[in-house]
Write a structure and sequence with these properties.
Radius of gyration: 15 Å
Largest sheet: 5 strands, antiparallel
Low-confidence stretches: none
Structural class: alpha+beta
Mean pLDDT: 93
Strand content: 35-45%
Helix content: 25-40%
Number of strands: 10
Strand order of the largest sheet: 5-8-1-10-9
Order of helices and strands: EEHHEEEEEEHEE
Length: 117
């Protein structure tokens, strides 16, 4: 299953060129604390490997590149897709997303605009 989350900011969203860790942190911060810690530290085991069983897209909107600051400048509305075969991950993420008023993504303050399944 997939969720598409759209966020809006009062100004352009500025992120470093390597911003994946910021999206990943946002995802873990929107899971229930104990489950997020377990998923991050241990995850789902199969044989000798550990799996997180979720993936996420890059930000879907086109950005302008600020080469001097090594950053992307996105429009004020951004979105990304989170997918997982584990319903618990998506349920917690969606529930906790709609119950929060503000989100931090790097130095940007965002508000949830829409959640699509």
């Amino acid at each position: 299953m997939k969720l598409k989350l759209s966020f809006i900011s009062e100004k352009n969203v500025i992120l470093p060129m390597s911003y994946n860790h910021l999206l990943q942190a946002l995802i873990y911060n929107l899971l229930d604390r104990n489950f997020a810690a377990w998923l991050h530290e241990k995850g789902f085991h199969y044989e000798n490997r550990s799996f997180k069983l979720f993936c996420f897209s890059r930000i879907l909107e086109k950005a302008n590149m600020d080469r001097s600051n090594k950053a992307f400048i996105f429009p004020s509305q951004i979105s990304f897709v989170l997918s997982s075969p584990v319903e618990q991950i998506l349920e917690q993420f969606a529930r906790n997303s709609v119950s929060r008023e503000r989100f931090r993504l790097g130095n940007n303050e965002l508000h949830l605009h829409a959640v699509e399944i």
